[in-house]
Task: structure prediction
Amino acid sequence: MQSMNLTPDIENGIFSEKMLDAVNTDGPVPEDAALKAYYYLQKDIEMAADLKSRLGRTPTACVITFGCQMNARDSEKLSGVLRRAGFEMTEDEKADFLIYNTCTVRDNADQRVFGRLGRAGHYKKSNPGMKIALCGCMMQESSNVEKIQKSYPFVDLIFGTHNLYCFSEYLYRIYMQDEKIADIWDKSPQIMEAMPSDRKYPYRSGVNIMLGCDKFCTYCIVPYVRGREKSRDPEEILCEVRALAADGVKEIMLLGQNVNSYGKDLGNGVTFAGLIAKVAETEGIERVRFMTPHPRDFGDDLIEVIRSHPKIARHIHLPMQSGSTAVLKKMNRQYTKEGFLELAYKIRKELPDCSVTTDIIVGFPGETKEDVDDTIDVIKKVGFENAFTFIYSRRRGTPAASMPSVMTEEEIGREFDRVLKTVQETAKMKAELLTGSTMEALAEEMNAQDPSLVTCRLSNNMIVHVPGDRSLIGNIIRVRLCECHGFYFFGEIAEE
Ligand code: SAH
Ligand code: SF4
Ligand code: F3S
Result:
């Protein structure tokens, strides 16, 4: 039902049970995208109840996520819709409804999806009522969609990154109208975040602050599959953060491909530094993280805000990609080896208790062993606390895809091992420096191997296992770091 008094809730941009209750499913389908999503969610509730009575049990649903934190956040929304509709969530891929939220940043991500999809086809043979869906970045590539339609005809639903908010509608249509749907959009007409969300951790949540990426690094597919940068309204973001805090969330992770470009397209003077300060000042929020900043736009204002807000985590993930100026230029990263080092040194000086981690690509077209020497030089000079190291993967349609390689696959493999070894050495060295100190840690979960231990995360993102029980989970506790094991510590709860 569309009426004036519903508008303020929609404008808050967060999911509201009140809005869902107010929907009139006997009326026409609303035109407004948010109201339409609520309308279909209400229809899904009816549909799932009907399914339950036909099956004689609660229908199950499984969401499998590939890729980055943004996909993980999207998956929480897919689960949110499914759970709210009345499905029971499971990790078993033999569920009645199965959806893969895909990533296409590297070729091995694509291959993993095709492998899993083949298996899912067999599950469907023994459960013909099963519905299989695919969404996410891989679906934004028409060749993937064509391949799926041709080779995996049992797939019921395909959608992309720009129309996630239509999920409640698609779900209804594949079940009630027995349709097969493939609906891919090439851009996001609006930012629509008002979907119920099923958080993986009750005490932590990602919050999208912007969509897309405009940086066009020459190796990267993300700008093509996630579209242009678009910042979300700051009031909407803060409203979501307040609602999460009220719901028991202590740690917020602000998400975007380039968080420090936040606000540039809004034209109202709002910056990422200004936004994160406000988030950190929100009552109930104990920790704020962000993913991912770009070295090019990492301003002094952000360093200052981090310094003056202890609730902002002492961890900066600063993707370097390469330490060679020549390679960085070919990658279109828009900084040099010296520029990156200068920024890293500044962070080390101004924020001495912050850990600095990075992403590195080995084997970019044209990269030589001497270029890798430069990368290793930067790793040693900065002394990263950790780094994700990737072998370059050619992505069709990106500028680097047509650039020739200098090194052979074997050589790239050897260079990769050389980089990895250096990363592991610096990471271990950095962690060892902290042995014996006492710090605050968020108790996250019971240790999977040893049920007498609780796994906690320090503000600097390092992991410490301490003896304790389930009652600690979700709390910030003081811990002493007793023994360093490279990437993690064994510790104990510190006496007050
Ligand atoms: N926006 C972020 C990260 C996006 S993707 C940034 O600017 O860094 C995450 C990481 O995947 C990247 O940092 C990069 O190291 C890696 N990556 C992206 N494209 C890749 C490719 N074609 N081959 C190998 N690694 C890639
Ligand atoms: Fe990809 Fe570069 Fe954008 Fe990061 S900044 S998402 S690496 S294009
Ligand atoms: Fe992958 Fe898409 Fe994230 S390609 S890394 S899931 S934005």
